[in-house]
Design a protein that fits this description.
The chain is built from 19 helices and no strands. It is mostly helical and 434 residues long. The protein has one domain: Growth Hormone, Chain: A, CATH 1.20.1250.20. It is globular.
């Protein structure tokens, strides 16, 4: 591995660890659903509303966040945000019994993790390679951040299982405190490993003179590729929300213990991402040579997983059920790992990349504003039958993802033809000038 690749790997490592530790807490109900209900003494709908409040705050901040991330170097933005997240984790340790305080903390986490952190993070990743390397870069990053998230989740599971034996509430507090401590570790890794002066993307180098101004900002909204990327993000975010309910499904329907369900939930939410994310990037760059085509395949796999849970007969082997839960997570990360990297083949320039990401995030994460509360309400009203409604909703969204990815593939072919024509014209012009 050359010096350049070593530096890029350590940069992706720092970014992956930071992302992995940053979002475990706001999305912790994906793995620790039952523990949060018990410790906080809230209903399913109230727990779901935390994500609604979080997403509303994120939505307000995505657009100015993209502008900030395109004006300020990513490293500065990321360091400030991750240390703020650490402080919020420790605050929740002492205030989790207050639901109003929990809502306030979830809103505050939208500032630390959503204002400029997200677009700065993804812009930092894109700057590490050429357009032809984007699938692999995002896939490797996804694998690294899932490694970090899995590590943190199992630390939390360990604390819940051992420290929480005598006092489950104390175990819950210790698990949350571990999030704050490891967020500090992530901040230190950024300080020492992330070199934001190193830019490898040839598009970025070619656009060095292109200043980000109001005209560039407004032009981003007119790009079809931005809207297609937004739709793909919408679909995988919905899939992530649906898969989060496989944890309570495991306990209330499959009869698994809370600790075992949390362990499987951690593997589904983060562990299989070590495979699904990098595999998605490899398939996109090497096998299919198209992120759009890889997204079609990913959403087809997600659809099959949801159909399985909708029609799974009673008495099915626990081994098969656990395998399908993990398969669902792998399929989800197969899509997630490359969703934002599709912008390169859809013709989105790097110098407006953070703003494009902010627009896609603003639209794409809107499902988090309502689906968690809606799903929680279905479970409160219909009991275990509510899971069937959740799975049917997931099937509809994954089929929508297949459709959007197909449209994106058609657009990518048009963009490729225009680029080829422009390159040929440039070669002819250069030849004539000699």
């Amino acid at each position: 591995m050359g010096h350049k690749n070593v530096k890029r790997f350590f940069t992706l490592f720092a970014l992956g660890i930071t992302y992995g530790f940053m979002y475990v807490m706001p999305y912790m109900k994906s793995s620790f659903y039952d523990q949060m209900i018990a410790a906080m003494q809230v209903t399913n709908e109230q727990l779901g509303f935390l994500m609604t409040a979080y997403t509303i705050a994120l939505t307000i901040m995505y657009i100015p966040g993209g502008w900030i991330a395109d004006k300020i170097k990513p490293k500065k933005v990321l360091i400030v945000c991750v240390f703020a997240q650490a402080g919020l984790s420790f605050l929740f340790v002492f205030t989790y019994t207050s639901y109003a305080m929990a809502v306030a903390i979830w809103v505050a986490m939208a500032f630390s993790g959503g204002l400029a952190f997200w677009p700065a993070l993804l812009k930092g990743i894109r700057m590490q390679g050429t357009d032809k390397e984007q699938g692999r870069l995002f896939g490797i990053f996804t694998g690294l951040n899932n490694f970090a998230s899995l590590l943190l989740s199992f630390i939390m599971v360990g604390i819940l299982a051992f420290v929480g034996q005598a006092d489950p509430i104390f175990g819950f507090q210790g698990a949350v405190a571990s999030m704050g401590g490891l967020a500090i570790v992530a901040g230190l890794l950024l300080i020492f490993l992330f070199d934001d002066k190193a830019v490898y993307n040839t598009d970025e180098a070619g656009k060095a003179a292109a200043k980000f101004d109001a005209r560039a900002f407004l032009s981003t909204f007119k790009m079809p590729g931005v809207w297609l990327m937004s739709g793909l993000v919408w679909c995988y975010v919905t899939m992530m929300a649906v898969s989060a309910y496989l944890t309570p499904y495991s306990t209330s329907v499959l009869g698994l213990s809370a600790v075992l369900a949390a362990s499987i939930g951690a593997l589904r939410t983060y562990g299989v991402g070590l495979i699904g994310g990098p595999l998605g990037g490899f398939v996109a760059d090497k096998a299919l040579r198209s992120v759009s085509k890889q997204q079609i395949l990913g959403f087809v796999l997600c659809t099959l997983a949801m159909v399985f849970f909708l029609f799974a007969p009673s008495g099915l082997s626990a081994v098969i059920l656990v395998f399908m839960i993990l398969f669902t997570g792998a399929s989800m990360f197969f899509c997630k790992g490359t969703a934002f990297s599709v912008q390169a083949e859809l013709g989105v320039p790097v110098h407006v990349s953070a703003t494009a990401i902010s627009i896609a995030s603003l639209i794409g994460y809107l499902p988090d504003m309502y689906v968690h509360t809606m799903f929680g309400n279905w479970l409160d009203v219909y009991g275990d039958a509510g899971f069937h409604y959740i799975f049917m909703y997931g099937i509809g969204m994954t089929l929508f993802g297949v459709t959007l990815a197909a449209i994106a593939y058609v657009l990518s072919k048009r963009v490729a033809k225009k680029r080829q024509a422009a390159e040929e014209e440039g070669v002819v012009s250069e030849s004539l000038s000699k």
